[in-house]
Design a protein that fits this description.
93 residues
Amino acid sequence: MEHPNAAGQVFNIGNDEETTILELANRVIALTGSASKIKIIPFSEAYPAGFEDMHRRIPDLNKVKAAIGYAPKRNLDAILTDVINQFKGGQKV
């Protein structure tokens, strides 16, 4: 926020590791040791008629990297583990 090259800019801050929702669900199950089963339902059952969503989300960090040198320091599993641990400790994120 305080970097001069960031003034007036909008950046995608995060990690550029692409993953599907199914892969994410499987990672959460593995990291929690859960016995949960994944149920895949049609898009039309999950969302109302006319709802549109992106088919792929691929974060692009090139702009923020060029402007201020940002690069993610933690991978998705480390972030998920932190969130899981907060929930296990009774603290919701």
